[in-house]
Amino acid sequence: MSDVPGEPGPGPIDDNVPIPPRDQLVKTAAKFLSSRNVVNSANENKIAFLKKKGLSDAEIDLAMRQAEVIIQSRSFDSNVYAVQNFGQPHAPTWQHQPSWMKYRDIGNSVALVGGLAYAVYWFYKKYLEPFFFGGGKKGLDSRLADLDKMITSSLSDLKSSVSRVRDDMERLTERRIESLSRQIDELKNEVGSLKKLMLSSVILGTCLCSDKSSLPDIELDPVDAETVSLCDSFRSFDDTFLATSISSRRKRSRRRRSRLGNERK
């Protein structure tokens, strides 16, 4: 109840009544939001940080608006500074050139163009014209002469190669003929020696052993008996020697045939 009769007493405080923003906190928050390290951060992080510091939603909204104004003014000031310092281009200073320098430049240009044209013309005459057109009749004649020389040299080389091969073949043939004639002579000598041995063994056997069949064994003296045994030993020796010589001759003939076959290959 009120102390003064007739006057209403103080009612309860309404929570929906807006509280005026605190200017100092709003300015501080605006500077914080406009700093270079915080500008690129997300708005949710900024709002959550300011709420932790005790700012209301209205104060946060006001601080963000002031921060945008500060950022825009900062960028405008930087653009104005750039325009004042670098925006005005320097006017080029025109220097008057004398006439002889103009003539010199023209002469240099003409000399350069002439040199390039002569280089192109020399390259065309040296390489392109012979390649595409063959140099006319003179070039064709020179080509034919070169072809004739090449064919002549190839034929001479071929003839020399054929002559060398022919000489080699003749030498090999002569060597083979000599070896064959030598082998034939050796074979003839061996056959003659065998014939002589066979004839000598036959004659000796007939001479020494002819009396053995006509006379009895009792009438033979010790000398005749020794002669008869010697005859028998000669016969066995002749048979053994003949068999050995025949086998050796066959072996030599086989070796010669194999050697001749290898030489032919």
Summarize the structure in short:
Its main location: membrane. Residues 22-65 form the Peroxisome membrane anchor protein Pex14p N-terminal domain. By secondary structure, the protein is mainly alpha-helical.
Structural account:
With 265 residues, this protein is mostly helical. The protein has three domains: 23-85, Winged helix-like DNA-binding domain superfamily/Winged helix DNA-binding domain (Arc Repressor Mutant, subunit A); 105-163; 173-264. It is 81% helix and 0% strand. The chain is built from seven helices and no strands. The chain has helices spanning 23-34, 36-39, 43-52, 57-87, 99-133, 136-214, 222-264. Mean pLDDT is 71; it is low at 1-17, 87-94 and 212-224. This is Peroxisomal membrane protein PEX14. InterPro entries: PEX14 (IPR025655), Pex14_N (IPR006785), WH-like_DNA-bd_sf (IPR036388).
Q: What descriptive keywords fit this protein?
A:
translocation, mainly alpha, Arc Repressor Mutant, subunit A, 7 helices, 265 residues
